[in-house]
Every structure is written in C-alpha cells, then in structure tokens.
Inverse folding.
C-alpha cells in the first residue's frame, strides 16, 4: 500500500476516534483524509478490509467497552457518548457484536467465560467441508491464549460458525464447516495484557491479530491456511468479541489451578483445543 494512502486512512481513523459522539458522515471522513468521497471509500476498504461506516461503528462499540470497564457511567450515558441516540439500538448492537449485553459485560469486567458457536444455520448450512491451518507468532508477539474463529465479516464480532482456543501457537482443525463465504480471524491476548485492560485507546495494549480470507466454502471444500499473529495496528478493525479470561484467578474460579494440555486427536494428528467454544443454546 502506498504510504500516502495509508497516512490518509489513518488521518480519517484518528478523526473518527476523536469524534465518536458526533454524527459523522463519509464526507466528513473523506475531508479528513483529503480525498473525494468515492475515492476515499475505495482506498479505506482496501486498507482496512471494511467500509468507513463499518469501521466507525466498530470504534463506537470498542469505546463503549472501554467506558463500561473503566467508568461508573450508566449505560444510557455511555450510549450517548459513543454516538447512539437510542439506548435500545445501542444495547442490541452491543449484544450482537460483543456476545453479551452491556450490563453483563460490565458485571464480568469485560471477560467472557466461553465463546458460543452459531449453530442456527442462519449463516450457512453444515457440510462435509473441513478447514485446518497453523497459527504462528510474528517477531513482536508475546505468547498467550490464541482464539481462532470463522466469521462472515472482516470484523471479529458476534458468534463464529467454528472456533477453537489454542494454549500455544500450532495447528487447528474445523470439521462440518457451513457453506458460505468466511474470514478466518485469530487474536491473542496475554495475561499481562488483560491486567492492563487492553484497548485500542490504550498505548500499551498488546492484542495481536491475524486474518485470512474471504474463503469460499462449498460442501466438499478442504482448505488449509497459515496465519501469523502481529500486534494490532491502527488499520486493523477493532476486536469486538469479548475475549476469554486468561487471568490466573479465573482459572482457579473454574477449578483449574495448573495449566492443562488442551488437545483433540483427529486421525493421527493432535490439535490444541479447548471447550471454551460451545454450541449456542
């Protein structure tokens, strides 16, 4: 990507972050990037993988997550601060994207006990397709719990159709993947990062991300992919899905005081796995 284009998109994102309580238009964002509206929309999509409007919506919810964890503001006030005029709209979008309501997110201090899988068939029908791959760490990434899931969009939000949690870099394998177009999205957060309450708003956040796709999955598809985790940057869409709690006290509360190998055997190979991904009720 040309450096001038990247800088223009970053200017637009900075303007979004500074005005989340305002009703911004694509024209406002394009003006900050110093491009025409139509050219800006094209270069933004190419740089981030999502439209300017989708990125802005994700930033609003990301800031709401930060305010729910770090302040005592009520949910109605937070919704106004991040640009929502309707509390009902804010609550429904937050719940759909993060995986829990704003009230539950605050009560759980921003942590998820498990990641529910979408088995409704609404996003695609189960098939004989298989997707497998390997997660690697980039040079600046600290080891930590790794989540990898398949989503219909470039932004990791809502319920994945398949997912796994790895205790270390390595292989993953998904069976009976629904037909459709999917993104493989991986993210990792260390215990130290969670103690610092990671967020794109915080300069010391240490979330690492990787993406692959879109993948077109048909009933007999066999896909292999490699993903390399890199520190999340300005151009990476915010991680909206509530991540698993990796703090030691959380493991103790769940009855696990020692790390345990999380492996499932498929054929003659073993893949890191945990029950943290469960079919949705």
């Amino acid at each position: 990507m040309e450096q001038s284009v990247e800088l223009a998109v970053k200017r637009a994102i900075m303007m979004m972050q500074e005005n989340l309580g305002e009703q911004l238009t694509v024209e406002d964002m394009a003006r900050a990037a110093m491009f025409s509206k139509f050219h800006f929309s094209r270069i933004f999509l190419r740089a981030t993988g999502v439209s300017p409007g989708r990125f802005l919506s994700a930033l609003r919810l990301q800031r709401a997550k930060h305010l729910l964890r770090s302040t005592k503001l009520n949910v109605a006030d937070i919704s106004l601060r991040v640009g929502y005029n309707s509390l009902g709209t804010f609550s429904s979008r937050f719940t759909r994207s993060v995986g829990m309501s704003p009230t539950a997110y605050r009560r759980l201090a921003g942590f998820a006990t498990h990641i529910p899988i979408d088995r409704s068939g609404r996003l695609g029908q189960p098939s004989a397709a298989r997707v497998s791959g390997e997660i690697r760490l980039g040079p600046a990434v600290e080891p930590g719990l790794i989540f990898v899931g398949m989503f219909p969009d470039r932004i990791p939000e809502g319920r994945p159709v398949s997912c796994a949690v790895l205790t270390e870099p390595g292989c993953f394998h998904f069976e009976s993947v629904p037909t459709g177009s999917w993104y493989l999205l991986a993210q990792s957060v260390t215990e130290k990062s969670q103690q610092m309450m990671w967020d794109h708003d915080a300069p010391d956040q240490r979330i690492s991300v990787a993406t692959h796709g879109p993948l077109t999955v048909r009933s007999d598809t066999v896909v292999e992919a490699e993903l390399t985790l890199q520190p999340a940057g300005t151009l990476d869409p915010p991680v909206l899905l509530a991540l698993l709690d990796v703090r030691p006290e959380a493991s103790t509360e769940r009855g696990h005081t020692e790390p345990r190998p999380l492996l499932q055997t498929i054929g003659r190979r073993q893949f890191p796995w945990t029950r943290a991904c469960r079919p949705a009720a």
User: Anything to note?
Assistant: The two ends are 43 Å apart (CA to CA). The first helix runs from residue 3 to 18.
